[in-house]
Amino acid sequence: MKTIQQKGYIGGVNNTGVPAVRSTECSGNYTPFSRLGFTLLETMIAVTLFGLVVAGTIEVYVMCNKLWHVTSLNMQTVRESNLAMSRIVYGMGTNYGLRSAATVTLNNNLHGHWDGVRYWETGAQPLPASSAMQYLCGEEGNDGSWRLSYSNAFGGLKHIDYNIQEKSLLFLPESGAIATRLLICNYVNAQVTTNSGGTISIELTVQRRDGNFTASNTVNTLVKIRNQP
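Request: output the structure for the sequence above.
Response:
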């Protein structure tokens, strides 16, 4: 009987009755079936795609961070300008404001003291109003600073000082008493006018800076003095 020798079985049963095992005759140019690692081209493509994803993510983060800063600064100026106007019109604490005044006097012949720091330009925080001498307004000429004095029959004489050099608004329950001064607002440009009919026009613009970001908000109102025709 002639014996048949089989090579290269893939499955099945050989002539001995044993399940065949795949065998392969190797030649000199044989390439392994499984290849490990990546080629240089594949690596370069992967690195390029990863770099694009990272660059896009960083750009989105920077844009969102800028938007957050601008929005936050805008909200701060809106809040501070509205709060300052409310303090002027309605008062601070137990001290009444212009809404309850019976007489009002505006003094424009004032010059504000300056401590050498431009807080609006630097974004720094001014000192407390109750201790800082630079908030004072002196009789040195008109530079845009002003004092609004008002009173009624029950609350006594009150003052609101605006120092254009410091861009600050102060409430003075007592004239000349630094310890009693209350801060209405910093970083503010304030304009006020009065007329013989007892109407007071007030405009406040709060400007803030945070690094390269700036924001401003303007509010205005008219106040009619009580018991005026």
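Confidence is low (pLDDT under 50) at residues 6-10.
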